[in-house]
Structures are given as C-alpha cells and as structure tokens.
Write a structure and sequence with these properties.
Elements (H helix, E strand, L loop, with lengths): L19 H12 L19 H13 L21 H7 L2 H4 L11 H18 L3 E3 L5 H18 L7 E5 L5 H8 L3 E5 L9 H7 L4 E7 L11 H10 L3 E5 L19 E3 L2 H4 L14 E3 L11 E5 L2 E5 L15 H37 L15 E3 L3 H5 L4 H10 L6 E2 L9 E3 L7 H20 L3 H4 L11 H6 L9
Parallel strand pairs: 2-3, 2-4, 4-5, 5-6
Antiparallel strand pairs: 1-7, 6-7, 8-9, 10-12, 11-12
Helix pairs in contact: 3-11, 5-11, 6-7, 11-14
Length: 484
C-alpha cells in the first residue's frame, strides 16, 4: 500500500535535498560562537510516516492517560472532579481567548468587571471582604497571605512575633510557605478524635505567636468543631488565623470562615469551583482577608470607580507575587461555574460531597479500618486491618491493585498522622453507580488481602508499565529521554 508522507514536516530529510533554512540556522549558531565541531553538516534524518499512522500513534498515547473524563478519580485532598464542558466552551470564545494582559483597561472593561464580580462572589462565600485573584496556585496563596501577615505585624511594631502554629495533619505546603515567608513553624498535635488538640494549642500560645494555620475541614476529613474557640484563643494571644481553604468545597454555601473567626484564607479554584486541575496547572489560588488586611494585598487589585473598572495598587501592598493579574481563563471558568449554580447550587455541592463521602465510609468500614469513624465531611481516611498487615499487605499494594481493576488510587500515606493511610474523596460529581463499582473493587481487594493473595504484591500487570521497585528507582534511577 502506498503512503503519502506528511508534507513539509519532513521535507528536509529527503535524500539529495538541501535545507536552506537549516543552513541559515547554522550560520546563526556559528555567529553566536558555537564550536564548529558541535554544528551539523546536514539536517537530522527524520522518518517519513503516513499522516494516518501519526494520528493513530498520538491517539493511542492519549488513551493511555488516566483522566477524570475516563474513570473514577477519588484522589483525597486534591478533589479531582468533573469540569463542566460549558465552562470550557465559554473560555474558548474569541472575545475572551484573544485578550492580552497588557491591553489598556478601557479596552477590557468586560474582563475587569468579571474579575471584580468574582472577587465579590468569593468574598460573599467566605465572609472575608477583601479578595485578590493574583496568586497562581493554592501554595502561592498561602505564601501571599503570610507575607501580608508579616507586613501587618511589622506595622503593629511586633516584628518579634515570628512563630506560626500548624497542626501535624496539615498539608506539606503549610510549613513550606511559613519558612519562605520568614516564619518559624511549631507543630500542634492531633487529638484522639482526629481534631486539633486544644490543650496542646493552649500550652503553645504566647507573645511569640504570629498566628495559626489550620485546614478546615482538616485533612482527616473532619470539621474542626472547636474552630470558633480556636480563633478566639489565637486572637487573644495577639495572633491571626489563616485557614487553608483546600477543603472549602465541603462547606461552601453552608458555613463562612469569616463568621467563625478566620482572618485569611486561600481558595483552590480547581477544588471548590471546578476549574482544570492536574499536570501542574493551570492554577489559581485567590486569597480572602479581613478588611484591615486589605491594604497589604498584592498588586494589582480590580476596583471600580466612577469611570469604570481598573487595576489599582493597595496603599501598603506587598507588591507583585506573579506576572500580570491572575490566571484569567481559570478565573473565567470559576465565574461561570458560580453564576450557573448560584447560592443554592453551591450549597448542594457541599451537601452532595459530604453525602458521597459518608456513603463510601459506611460501606467500606465493614472491610477496612476507619480510625475516625464519625460523620466525615468530603473525604475520609481508612487503612488496612491488622489481619491484612499480618499477611504482609501494605497500602501501596492496595493502590497498585486498584490500578489493575481500572480505578485511580486514592491518596496514600497521607495524612502522616494515620499510618498506612488511604484517603478517598468521591466528590459531589459522581453518581451512586460509580461509587458502588469502586466499593466492589475495594471489597474484592480487602478479601484478597485477608487471604494474602500474591496478586496484591505483583499488581499491576495489565498496564503499559508493570510494577517497579520504587525504592530502588529512587536510589538508582534509569532516565531515558529517547525511545526505540
């Protein structure tokens, strides 16, 4: 069968052809002072391939990717949920897609109005009136808020307050952000109920405390029922309370952090407001703060005056924390999501997320150990039973076996306060049939673990890459940048 090669793309590789563009590139390299021995005399030999074969190659590669659009993705603490396609369609409209961040504000009034309204929506949802859309991710939002806290402390003539309390169940970005912002970290214990140990908190408060970083609901999937008292104690000690808003999707439309005493928080738009997530981005981590911290927010902010919307710099701004004005296309998707759902719809998001998580927890508690077996929020933590561990079965075995059964594993070995942790989050966007299929897979694995089946230690065997020695791979990696 005759194949027609892809035109132009491989033109220079045909025998006897001279590539003038290539020669021009060589002259440019030579002019830049590159050694003559490092320059090619001829272009590299590239294969000729039928366009259809090329299409099939990349299509097959794409089908090997695991995505929320193909299978259930119960990644606890990361909220891998469906991104409505209507949001993607809206964001792809030329009116939005062709904007440039350096256009004059008079030319982009619609975009600035949208950002201004999104700021207002996030302020309403959190109960914190001052909002910036600037940070590029949740972790950068943490750092930004802590920099605002440091600026506030300096203005209060309290530069010696440099210790931030963080529960031992926190996301790893919390202590990292504190360190980058110039604070010292002191850990708080998790009590036997999975909540912040109040006695430990009280014993560590004092004039050296700058504040507290707390995740609510916490990473164990529990609502910090003493949160109002916690905030009051920190305020009485002269500090401020930062809430890691990674799990805000469990309480959005139900509870406002500002109402129970939070001073600062970030929002992961991909987790609560259903914008794209995974692959390192795109990201957006707006922060919301109390009115007295507004003047420290990073530049620029979107404000409204008599002539319209414009970008402005707060009076005591900490400055820029990234280029331009925020990840606009992600902000657009979040705005669309909020406006389509409205206040009632956002409350149902939280209610359904909590319902789905508790459905999984109750169904699986008969087969796995759930160390904190009360009503959970949007996620819960389980682990292998004693019998399973006696058979040599570990959490990693369970995760690998789930892959073999067609499910992405939940988050494993986190939070660190639970040994052999399996943290699952079904999100509000999954139906009962999907959850039941996952439950059946987990029950099957539980039965295999109790029997000590060798299949658990060999899984996965039906994937393009079978099980690897992960410890050896870390110590002795074999990196390959070519194939074939």
């Amino acid at each position: 069968m005759n194949h027609t090669p892809v035109p132009l793309l491989f033109e220079a590789s045909r025998p006897g052809r001279r590539c003038t563009r290539y020669q021009g590139a060589n002259r440019t390299k030579a002019a830049a002072g590159l050694p003559a021995g490092e320059l090619r005399d001829a272009p590299p030999a590239l294969p000729e391939i039928a366009e259809q074969d090329l299409l099939r190659h990349f299509t097959i590669l794409s089908q090997k990717n695991y995505a929320i659009s193909t299978q259930f993705y119960p990644l606890g603490s990361c909220t891998m949920k469906y991104n409505p396609q209507v949001n993607e369609a809206i964001a792809s409209q030329p009116a939005w897609a062709h904007l440039h961040p350096l256009q004059e504000s008079g030319e982009v009034q619609g975009a600035l109005k949208l950002m201004h309204q999104l700021q207002a929506d996030l302020a309403e949802a959190t109960g914190l009136p001052a909002v910036t859309l600037h940070p590029a991710a949740g972790a950068q939002g943490e750092l930004t808020a802590l920099m605002c806290l440091r600026a506030w402390l300096n203005d209060q003539d309290q530069p010696d307050r440099r210790t931030v309390l963080i529960p031992d169940s926190a996301h790893g970005t919390n202590p990292a952000s504190c360190t980058l912002a110039g604070f010292k970290v002191q850990s708080l214990k998790t009590g036997p109920d999975g909540l912040t140990d109040m006695d430990d908190l009280k014993s560590k408060l004092g004039p050296h405390i700058a504040g507290l970083m707390i995740t609510n609901p916490n990473t164990i999937g529990l609502f910090e029922e003493n949160i109002a008292e916690i905030c009051e104690l920190v305020h009485e000690a002269g500090g401020r309370v930062y809430m890691d808003g990674a799990n805000f999707n469990a309480i959005v439309g139900v509870a406002k952090p500002g109402d129970f005493g939070i001073d600062m928080m970030h929002l992961n738009l991909h987790k609560t407001f259903s914008t794209p997530h995974g692959g390192g981005g795109p990201g957006s981590g707006p922060i919301c703060v109390t009115e007295d911290l507004r003047k420290y927010l990073p530049a620029p902010q979107v404000i409204e005056n008599e002539s319209g919307y414009l970008l402005a710099t707060p009076s005591l701004s900490i400055g820029r924390v990234r280029g331009y004005h925020g990840n606009f296309m992600v902000l657009l998707r979040a705005y669309s999501y909020i406006k389509r759902l409205g206040a009632e719809g956002l409350r149902r998001v939280a209610e359904n997320a909590v319902l789905n998580a508790n459905y999984l927890r109750v169904k699986l508690n008969q087969h796995w150990r759930v160390p904190f077996d009360g009503i959970c929020m949007h996620e819960f933590v389980a682990r292998p039973t004693k019998e399973m561990k006696e058979n040599g079965v570990h959490t990693l075995d369970i995760a690998k076996r789930l892959i073999e059964l067609g499910y992405h594993p939940p988050t494993v070995y986190f939070p660190l306060v639970v040994a052999e942790a399996i943290m699952a989050e079904p999100t509000e966007t999954e139906c009962k049939e999907t959850l039941d299929g996952y439950i059946e897979a987990m029950i099957q694995i539980a039965e295999e673990a109790r029997r000590g089946d060798e299949a658990l230690h060999k899984a996965p065997q039906n994937t393009p890459v079978s099980r690897v020695d992960e410890a050896r791979a870390v110590k002795d990696p074999k990196l390959c940048f070519t194939c074939g």
